[in-house]
Amino acid sequence: MDNSVYQNPLITRYASKEMASNFSDEKRFKLWRKLWIALAESEMEMGLNITPAQIAEMKKNADNINFEVAEKYEREVRHDVMAHVKAFGEQAPSAKPIIHLGATSCFVDCNSEVMILADALEIIKVKLVNVMDKLSKFALKYKDLPTLGFTHLQPAQLSTVGKRATLWLQDLTMDYNNLVNLQNSIKLRGVKGTTGTQASFMELFEGDESKVKELEKKVVAKLGYDKVYGVTGQTYPRKFDYNVLCVLSQIAQSAYKFSNDIRILQNMKEIEEPFEKSQIGSSAMAYKRNPMRSERMGSLARFVISLPMNSAITAGTQWFERTLDDSANRRIVNAQAFLALDGILNIYLNVSENLVVYDKIIARHIAAELPFMATENIIMECVKAGGDRQDLHEKIRVLSMEAGRHVKEEGKDNNLIELIKKDKLFDAVHGKLDEILDARKFIGRAPSQVVEFIDNEVKPILKENAACLGVRGDVKV
Question: Taking the complete model, does pTM exceed 0.85, yes or no?
Answer without folding.
Answer: yes
